[in-house]
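Acyl-CoA/acyl-ACP dehydrogenase (Streptomyces musisoli), 394 aa
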Amino acid sequence: MDTRLTAEQDGIRRALRELLHKRCGPGEVRAAVDGPAGYDPLLWTALAGRLGLPGLALPEAYGGVGCSVTELALACEEVGRFLAPSPLLATSVLTAPLILALGTEAQRAELLPRIADGSLTAALAVSGPALATALGLTRGNGEYSAGGGRAGGMQARRAEGGWRLYGEAEQVLDGHSAGLLLVAAHTGGFARARTLLFLVTGEEAGPARIRQTALDATRPRARVQLRDVPARLLGTEETDVLPALAGAGDAAAAVLAAEAVGAADRVLERTVEYAGQRVQFGRPVGSFQAVKHRLADVYVGVQAARSAAYYAAWAAGRGERAGGLALAQALEALRCAAAEGIQLHGGIGFTWEHDAHLYFKRAAGDELLFGPVHRLRDRAAEAAGLFAAHEAVV
């Protein structure tokens, strides 16, 4: 693995950082999350039109840029630095790869060019608080079912001319505003139960998409309630959905890890800057040895997490899986950086309105959605066969 960035990769980072620096300050972030969409549509248009961000990792044949997971991770690292609210994660990281992997050629040709140019946003809807399970991040998803019992979860049944969906999915990222829902639903009855993915347009879903109050407002989410809604099957009935979900989950974890690294790096920069300005006992608090040690520990954690995230993104492009472990490392680094940032900002840092809390909420919110950290590590150890090796030794 060559850790040096190519000229193209460096150009993506610089262009994105320049645009977000101008358009996505703390005030703009707070204003965007209070809007009906939960993000700034004009900023999303700029990201799509000027930089091609939604289609960065999509093939050129479908209007994308043709880059790999590595470039998408580098871009999301910059997005994470500014906590820029956008449908990028839900659309390009979670949903588009599944359409690319499982969709028919007609479905890919219809949907992916619109995703690549930013005109269509999408969301992945799974039943219950089970996103990490469906993606295979906290345990194997071989036994995952989109149904939650006879009357629970999301169910699909055949109907004249297609399929109909009914049920409920919570914590759907950008589910209230997405133009397309990719819904995991239970089908086949008890004897032949299985999970398939279905396409539902925003118009078909109707008004039963309710935005929820979230700890991290920069990650808007919704409760999606479907009542006899028409849907199209993604791919065919022979499509094996669960391995594709696990593969998409590992790549998404690598991208999320890079995003968390960007956020941790930014909160560390702001804390170091403040420690050099705040004077206590006649000298900047950053000159005290204890403060230096604490900031040095945060720095080491951020750099280690960056190395893990970069490796996971590189490995995902080669079909290898290291995303879950990298995500655990990055979330831990972000949580530590945000906590130290709050404390070292002194009294002002403990006020709820301070920007440091945005980063702390991002760390806590991502752990609730994709973790927690110890389960991510348990799953990585299980996948690597460490538990089996330990049992053999005993």
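Residues 241-277 form the longest helix (37 residues). The CA atoms of residues 269 and 341 lie 9 Å apart. ok done for today
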